[in-house]
Design a protein that fits this description.
By secondary structure, the chain is α/β, with parallel strands linked by helices. The protein has helices at about 5-10, 20-25, 30-50, 85-95, 115-130, 145-155, 170-175, 180-195, 210-225, 250-265, 275-280, 280-290, 300-305, 320-335, and strands at about 50-55, 55-60, 105-110, 135-140, 160, 195-205, 230-235, 295, 335-340. The strands form two sheets. It has a six-stranded parallel sheet. A three-stranded parallel sheet has the order 8-1-9, with helices on one face. β6 (about 195-205), α9 and β7 form a beta-alpha-beta unit. The chain is globular and about 55 Å long. The protein binds S-adenosyl-L-homocysteine (SAH). The site of S-adenosyl-L-homocysteine has 19 residues, from loops.
């Protein structure tokens, strides 16, 4: 196998094998690696130009019934001030974001039982009636098909649900027994079937992960063909069982972004906050490797620290408007610009 034979498969839209992905992750020379990033960047430029889509992230609750070993808002973490935004608070976040140019709002939270279908549907209808030119993305974990369907009918456009790791054995090492990787993957196929723009994704460098596990994610995403993929490095949170584990690396994360861009040329790929938390230039590096989305935080200032998935989460400490100006400056430095656009999947 050679680098050019794998690149050839990408360009002819042929499926890659596990060996192909493993080679990209572990077998490239320095020069080939640079070529990989350049190809990924060119692919993104051909699809999106130098425009970066922005999504306003609203962290609506840190209450969660799950106990994922890596996550700071896991049920067993008693060292956390729990909060849930009210409907009015969420709508105020949207009101603040709209004039700044946000045309997508991402409602993300733990699996909080208070988010009934009725409550969410009513909220979705209100957001869509006040901001009719905006898209709404949900990221609220696993729900039933019926629930996903109702939320879709009420106006949700997109859903983010990372598979976390597509390797079932590795998944079981990151989650308690009662959580099922098959159920999570089934949710993703259901979301796609229901017509959501669907986002999968995984953590890079989670405890016990090797390249062979990442290969499973690429193969899974090649089958799923999601419209979005979010990836970021694993970062330890002190109040979790993995609090002393080493973080993933920025280099491996950026490499995965580049591979994903070549695998899914049209997909919306964010340069994630986790990557920016690990490396101050992480967002720029990801964009230069093919990412085309950033997700600035629109949550009320007083809750941002409580939505602590991992330690040392990056935030400018600034108001949304100021944060956005800094981000725009970072993007301009590398020849890109933020745009006012829903940024739907193409
Ligand atoms: N409850 C929702 C949202 C989860 S938080 C859901 O189940 O999808 C969003 C993402 O943060 C998760 O999918 C996970 O990949 C990531 N995350 C959680 N803990 C993390 C950690 N310690 N380091 C890096 N990413 C983490």
């Amino acid at each position: 196998m050679t680098f050019s034979s794998v690149v050839e498969k990408f360009s002819r839209n042929l499926p890659l094998t596990g060996e192909d992905f493993l080679f990209l992750l572990t077998g490239l020379t320095g020069a080939e690696e640079a070529r990989l990033y350049a190809l990924a960047r060119e692919t993104a430029l051909a699809q999106f130009g130098n425009r970066i889509f922005i999504r306003g992230l609203i962290e609506i609750s840190n209450i969660c019934k799950n106990d994922c070993y890596y996550c700071g808002i896991r049920k067993s973490n008693s060292n956390l001030t729990r909060y849930r935004l009210t409907r009015e608070q969420i709508l105020s976040c949207c009101e603040a974001g709209y004039p700044l140019g946000f045309r997508t709002f991402v409602l993300q939270g733990g699996e909080d039982g208070a988010f009934t279908d009725d409550w969410l549907c009513s909220l979705l209808k209100e957001i869509k009636s006040r901001f009719s030119d905006c898209a709404v993305t949900l990221s609220l974990g696993e729900r039933s098909r019926e629930s996903y369907q109702k939320l879709k009918q009420a106006g949700a456009d997109r859903y983010l649900l990372r598979e976390e790791t597509a390797d079932f054995a590795h998944y079981q090492k990151l989650h308690p027994r009662c959580m099922s990787p098959r159920r999570r993957q089934d949710c993703l196929f259901t979301l796609k079937e229901l017509g959501y723009q669907t986002g999968g994704g995984f953590m890079v460098g989670s405890p016990g992960q090797g390249p062979e596990h990442l290969v499973r994610d690429f193969l899974f995403l090649q089958t799923l063909q999601p419209q979005m993929v979010g990836i970021g490095p694993f970062l330890p949170h002190k109040d979790t069982p993995f609090g002393d584990c080493p973080p993933g690396t920025a280099a491996q994360t950026v490499r995965c972004v580049a591979i994903l861009r070549l695998l899914l040329p049209k997909a919306n790929l964010p340069a994630t906050t986790a990557l920016a938390s690990l490396d101050p230039n992480g967002r720029q590096k990801a964009v230069l490797a093919g990412a085309n989305v950033v997700m600035p935080n629109l949550s009320p200032g007083e809750v941002r620290d409580h939505y602590s998935l991992y330690d040392h989460k990056a935030h400018s400490g600034a108001e949304a408007a100021e944060g956005l100006r800094l981000l725009q400056k970072q993007m301009e430095e590398i020849g890109y610009t933020l745009c006012v656009d829903r940024g739907d999947s193409r």
